[in-house]
Write a structure and sequence with these properties.
Blueprint: E1 12-13, E2 18-19, E3 113-116, E4 140-143, E5 150-152, H1 154-174, H2 182-210, E6 215-221, E7 224-229, H3 236-263, H4 269-288, H5 296-309, H6 312-340, H7 353-385, H8 391-394, E8 398-402, H9 407-417, E9 421-425, E10 431-435, H10 437-442, E11 457-459, E12 465-467, H11 472-481, E13 486-490, E14 496-501, H12 502-514
Parallel strand pairs: 5-6, 8-9, 12-13
Antiparallel strand pairs: 1-2, 3-7, 4-5, 6-7, 9-10, 10-11, 13-14
Helix pairs in contact: 1-2, 2-3, 2-4, 3-4, 3-5, 5-6, 6-7, 7-12
Length: about 525
């Protein structure tokens, strides 16, 4: 995580308007995302040479039109055409001209919790880095109940086809007179089953909205559904209720289908459909009540341990390890139970296609549960360290320059001040725009004396001006409201503190996820 210049406060110096920060107190050297010290490289320290007197000395070309194949655009050892920068004495400076990871605004990372509504659905969403957050999509949009978009993932169609085939074969034994129409009936069953899963998810969503927890979306996918809730519950009691309402609604639906089954004649299409929906909802409820993350029962266990210990992290650790034990149990126990006939079928000998199918299903469920438990641990670890993400620590030092300042001169001032960002100001010193790091990198070194910083800057909008006091989720929420590559960080008095790069926040976010508790 690049933290260079995190505690330096810019101060004006001289008539040129350059800033020379105070020496940082206890600020670590610049580091990359994995914690290793970043090799220091100076910014362009070449002082501005005299401008050419005429076009014969330098062809007039736009800065962004330089020929990529032009070898003169790249500095070479021994090239005397452009003065070489002297390496800084301190290893804490990093280059302003280092190529950034992203040139387009990226949505800041968000921490999410999710509730599953089907056997094996992931229970807690892993944090998503900015690059993965292209938008709120996730498949085919089906509607927005309670203002929350509902998506059907492409994997659902695979599962629906599988359910149609399996249930259709079962109908052939129960209702052989249906013939080929049995697959239409089984397709209706697959849609009705996932409608039940949607009701399960809507129960989580309504409870979350009742507790004023924003819900990003509901997604129906492979082996169930997920409600992506933006924030964690504030109390263990709310966490328990939020987790329990899903299985409770599945039990209520099972009761409704049972009552409907009693009202129709057995052995008919409606009777078989209602019986299948009753059993499937009982399975969904029972499976999600198992006490291990990422299932709803695991979140209930987490809430209980949280209440007893007073530490949400302790609850997460306990429920996650129970979830991993549950994954191993499913991997080993599910095929054995199917072979023994304990799940309602006939006992079978080990071997053959049925054994392979049972083992494959168990492996998929176990993998999903194990992965979900690990994601829950990583999410809890992130939330524990999230308050450590502070705008003041991550902010780069910046120097103010006027829009007509040549890029080479601006970089020289930044290097002298130990800064890694440029802020374009007006004649009164008020900030107007931020010089994009990606734009600086795109200008060849030999063109920088003839390129003004104003042509490389992005105007500062209201959302791009943030407080140096922001930290944790408040910081992420603020950046997410206005996606950009750089933000102007100011003190409460309005004084410029520096520039915050979205790439630095992303690296800090990833590092916080990997940090042990």
């Amino acid at each position: 995580m690049d933290e260079s210049g995190g505690s330096g406060r810019p101060q004006s110096e001289g008539a040129e308007g350059s800033l020379r920060p105070k020496e940082p107190q206890g600020v670590p050297s610049a580091h990359d995302a994995d914690g290793s010290q970043e090799s220091a490289r100076p910014v362009d320290t070449a002082r501005e040479p005299a401008r050419p007197a005429g076009p014969a000395d330098e062809p007039q070309r736009p800065a962004d039109a330089a020929d990529p194949a032009d070898e003169s655009a790249q500095p070479r050892p021994g090239d005397t055409g452009t003065p070489q920068a002297e390496p800084p004495k301190s290893g804490s400076r990093a280059s302003l001209t280092k190529a950034p990871r992203e040139e387009t605004p990226a949505e800041p990372p968000r921490a999410r919790a999710a509730h599953s509504g089907g056997p094996g659905g992931p229970g807690k969403g892993a944090p998503v880095p900015p690059k993965a957050q292209k938008g709120p999509g996730g498949g085919l949009l089906m509607g927005k109940p309670f203002g929350v978009p509902v998506y059907v993932a492409p994997s659902w169609f695979i599962v629906a086809a599988l359910i149609t085939w399996v249930f259709g074969n079962q109908l052939d034994r129960v209702l052989p007179e249906l013939g080929g129409a049995r697959y239409l009936v089984s397709l209706f069953f697959a849609v009705a089953f996932y409608a039940s899963v949607l009701v399960h998810e809507l129960a989580h969503t309504v409870a979350a909205l009742r507790f004023k927890l924003p819900v990003r979306r509901i997604q129906l996918q492979f082996f169930g559904g997920v409600s992506e809730i933006e924030k964690e519950s504030e109390t263990p009691g709310r966490e328990f209720v939020l987790a329990f309402v899903g299985p409770l609604l599945s039990l209520v639906l099972a009761g409704v289908f049972y009552a409907g089954m009693r009202a129709v004649e057995p052995g008919t299409v409606p009777g078989v459909l209602l019986a299948g929906l009753m059993i499937s909802n009982l399975i969904v409820a029972a499976f999600n009540l198992l006490p291990g993350l990422p299932l709803d029962g695991g979140r209930m266990l987490r809430a209980v341990v949280w209440k007893i210990t007073g530490k949400p992290m302790s609850g997460t650790v306990a429920a996650a390890w129970v979830g991993r034990a549950l994954a191993i149990s499913v991997l080993i126990g599910l095929p054995l139970l199917n072979q023994s006939g304990a799940l309602g079928g006939e006992s079978q000998e080990i071997g053959g296609m049925d054994t392979v199918t049972d083992a494959l299903l168990a492996a998929i469920l176990a993998a999903i549960i194990w992965t979900g438990a690990g994601n829950s641990l990583r999410m809890a670890r992130l939330r524990e360290h999230l308050p450590e993400l502070r705008a003041r620590t991550l902010t780069r030092r910046a120097v103010p320059v006027e829009s007509d300042t040549p890029l080479s001169e601006a970089l020289r001032r930044a290097n002298d001040a130990g800064a890694r960002a440029l802020v374009v100001v007006d004649t009164d010193g008020d900030p107007m725009a931020l010089v994009r790091e990606a734009a600086i990198v795109s200008v060849p070194q030999h063109r920088r004396p003839w390129v003004d910083v104003g042509g490389l800057a992005q105007d500062i909008t209201e959302g791009m001006r943030i407080s140096a006091e922001l930290a944790g989720e408040e910081l992420l929420d603020t950046l997410r409201a206005t996606p950009a590559t750089e933000y102007l960080v100011v003190e409460e008095s309005g004084e410029i503190y520096g520039v915050l790069s979205a790439a630095d926040v992303e690296r800090a976010f990833v590092k916080a996820m990997a940090r042990p508790s």
